[in-house]
């Protein structure tokens, strides 16, 4: 694994360039010019110090990914571990931070379980996703709790804004008795726009775990999304949106004894509903309001089919933002967020709801033509643990020859979860919030022959919450480096990103569990007339499955191949072969991953 990373660094240093995303049919790199999540308002990417990755709908379709985790694992700084195939428990580590250190937004609404503290990425249908923005690094000064590692915002399907309705239909089948169908219709009429879509995935799956139940663990997911909006003559807008996925996932019980009380099935519902609107208060002042609710429901059933447990999370969200242009190159954003978290469960929690209110301000400025400054400050009050103040400062300098330099500093926090605070005979109501400080710096280039970026970062986390017993006793130090490079070579679009990571427990100097110290992701693609071809390599070093670093999981390399044929402007056939080398690998001890498999899809659009 180290040889692979060294070779890639050598290629980068001598000028062999790569690309960071999937490539469009006309052999140009699809790199969106603006992002919303980094500043909570539309901002040019080349004015930001923050590390950003954006996936568009075109990227999703070109990569032919079947799930959201499959898409996210191609991004720099992200490590995905899965417990046994489609729909199984998925943990995401961003720059070595915990899964519950990552804030997840769906259309601006905070998502995830209030009991576990993390989002169920495995249940979000990729067919319902229009765009994903990933911001790496602390973002609590804009968003409050959970943004120690960064923010992932998922934008649901919006579709084409054309007078003639746009229709997209897909049907696919592949290994493990897996079948998918999806459809979306979108368009506009006068000053109105709309989108409506549905999807279904059904798979018999693989045996998630060899140890206890030698059976296949299936998964099914049915999703629907809808969106409608109106633009008023006075430049005001209003939009409502809805996404829901529900289904069932099977897994292997946690004990070998068949007679023991355990569960191996979960019926789930994930839903987001919201409304937002924007209007001009003055010529230089635009205000926006957003109200929404997310739900994360899970009912578990025993191996004998009887009900086992219920954990239902609901989050109510409200936000008010004000973008004020002070001068041509100076803008401030002032806002406030209010959230109420609720839990309904078969477990009797000591507390079943809590609120969080936050107020923040941000300044984005351009100075001396080539310098960009971004500074933000936020105050939060959480009912569970009290007040917190966070800040962030970023600087970027774009000079001649296409070169840029940037640096940023910020602190962040994460409020304890309901399980950590209130779970009977387990939680600790006296817990403090986990807190972090982070610094990063880097340099980037945008040239005719390549675009590239190199970043290094350092993060300290205090008051880490340990389990058994639940206490604020741990501290961690995470140092890392990320590199991205992109170009075309002889007509082939190449992409490479890699990460070197040292996540350490500061008390023991042992590596934090389940993080790979080295990760490399490489993608290559090209179009030949009506044919598109591509391949993807993911390589990861070894990891430990426990805090004592006694159980080591080997590193691995997987190779995927894909192709697509354009029958005409309406019909497209695509096929993908995953894990070409039939690598037997794990990311969680004793839990299996897919061996060699294929998937075939037929697409229609008008």
Q: Can you put this structure into words, describing what you see?
A:
The chain is mainly beta and 606 residues long. It has one domain: TonB-dependent receptor, beta-barrel domain (Maltoporin, Chain A, Beta Barrel), CATH 2.40.170. It is built from 5 helices and 33 strands. The chain has a 22-stranded antiparallel barrel. It has a 5-stranded mixed beta sheet with strand order 3-8-9-6-7. Strands 1-2 form a two-stranded antiparallel sheet. Strand 20 and strand 21 form a beta hairpin. The longest helix is centred in the first third of the chain and has 12 residues. The N terminus is likely disordered.
Keywords:
mainly beta; Maltoporin, Chain A; 5 helices; five-stranded mixed beta sheet
Secondary-structure blueprint:
Layout: H1 2-13, E1 34-35, E2 43-44, E3 51-56, H2 57-63, H3 68-72, E4 78-82, E5 90-94, E6 102-106, E7 109-110, E8 129-136, H4 140-143, E9 150-156, E10 166-174, E11 178-189, E12 192-203, E13 219-231, E14 237-250, E15 263-282, E16 285-302, E17 307-327, E18 330-345, E19 353-367, E20 371-382, E21 386-398, E22 403-414, H5 418-422, E23 434-446, E24 451-466, E25 471-489, E26 492-505, E27 518-528, E28 531-540, E29 543-544, E30 552-553, E31 556-566, E32 571-578, E33 597-605
Parallel strand pairs: 6-9
Antiparallel strand pairs: 1-2, 3-8, 4-5, 6-7, 8-9, 10-11, 10-33, 11-12, 12-13, 13-14, 14-15, 15-16, 16-17, 17-18, 18-19, 19-20, 20-21, 21-22, 22-23, 23-24, 24-25, 25-26, 26-27, 27-28, 28-31, 29-30, 31-32, 32-33
């Amino acid at each position: 694994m180290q040889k692979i990373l060294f070779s890639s660094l050598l290629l980068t240093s001598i000028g062999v360039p790569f690309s960071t995303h999937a490539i469009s049919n006309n052999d140009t790199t699809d790199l969106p010019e603006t992002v919303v999540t980094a500043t909570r308002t539309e901002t040019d990417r080349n004015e930001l110090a923050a590390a950003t990755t954006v996936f568009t709908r075109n990227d999703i379709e070109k990569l032919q990914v079947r799930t959201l985790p499959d898409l996210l694992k191609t991004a720099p700084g992200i490590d995905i571990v899965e417990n046994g195939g489609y729909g199984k428990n998925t943990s995401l580590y961003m720059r070595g931070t915990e899964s519950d250190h990552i804030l997840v937004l769906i259309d601006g609404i905070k998502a995830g379980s209030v009991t576990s503290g993390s989002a169920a990425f495995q249940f979000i249908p990729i067919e319902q996703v229009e765009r994903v923005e990933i911001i790496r690094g602390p973002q609590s000064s804009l968003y409050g709790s959970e943004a120690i590692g960064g923010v992932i915002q998922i934008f649901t399907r919006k579709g084409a804004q054309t007078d003639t309705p746009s229709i997209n239909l897909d049907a696919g089948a592949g290994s493990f008795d897996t079948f998918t169908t999806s459809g979306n219709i979108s368009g506009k009429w006068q000053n109105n726009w709309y989108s409506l879509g549905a999807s279904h995935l059904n798979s018999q799956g693989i045996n998630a775990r060899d140890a206890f139940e030698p059976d296949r663990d299936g998964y099914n997911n049915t999703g629907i999304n809808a969106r409608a909006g109106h633009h008023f003559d006075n430049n005001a807008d209003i939009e409502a949106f809805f996404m829901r996925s529900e289904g069932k996932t099977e897994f292997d019980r946690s004990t070998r004894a068949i007679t023991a009380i355990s569960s191996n099935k979960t019926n789930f519902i994930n839903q987001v509903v919201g409304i937002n609107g924007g209007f001009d208060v003055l010529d230089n002042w635009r205000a926006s309001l957003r109200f929404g609710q997310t739900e994360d429901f899970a009912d578990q059933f025993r191996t004998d089919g009887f009900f086992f447990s219920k954990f239902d999370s609901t989050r109510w969200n409200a936000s008010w933002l004000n973008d004020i242009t002070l001068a041509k190159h100076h803008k401030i954003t002032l806002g406030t967020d209010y959230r109420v978290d609720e839990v309904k469960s078969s477990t009797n929690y000591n507390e079943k709801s809590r609120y969080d209110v936050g107020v923040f301000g941000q300044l984005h400025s351009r100075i001396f033509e080539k310098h960009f400054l971004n500074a933000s400050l936020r105050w939060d009050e959480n009912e569970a643990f009290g007040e917190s103040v966070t800040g962030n400062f970023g600087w970027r300098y774009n000079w001649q020859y296409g070169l840029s330099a940037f640096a940023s500093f910020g602190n962040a926090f994460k409020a304890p979860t309901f399980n950590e605070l209130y779970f009977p005979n387990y939680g600790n109501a006296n817990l403090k919030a986990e807190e972090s400080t982070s610094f990063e710096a880097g340099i980037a280039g945008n040239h005719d022959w390549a675009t590239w970026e190199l970043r290094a970062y350092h993060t300290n986390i205090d008051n880490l919450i340990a389990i058994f017993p639940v206490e604020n006793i741990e501290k961690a130090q995470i140092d890392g480096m990320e590199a991205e490079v992109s170009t075309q070579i002889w007509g082939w679009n190449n992409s490479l990103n890699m990460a070197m990571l040292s996540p350490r427990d500061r008390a023991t100097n042992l590596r934090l569990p389940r993080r790979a110290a080295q990760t490399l992701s490489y993608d290559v693609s090209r179009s030949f007339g009506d044919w598109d071809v591509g391949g993807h390599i993911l390589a990861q070093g070894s990891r430990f499955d426990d805090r004592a670093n006694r159980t080591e999981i080997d590193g691995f390399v997987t190779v995927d191949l894909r192709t697509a044929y354009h029958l005409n402007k309406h019909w497209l056939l695509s096929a993908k072969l995953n894990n070409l080398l039939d690598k037997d690998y794990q990311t969680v001890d004793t839990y299996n991953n897919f061996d060699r498999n294929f998937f075939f899809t037929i697409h229609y659009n008008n």
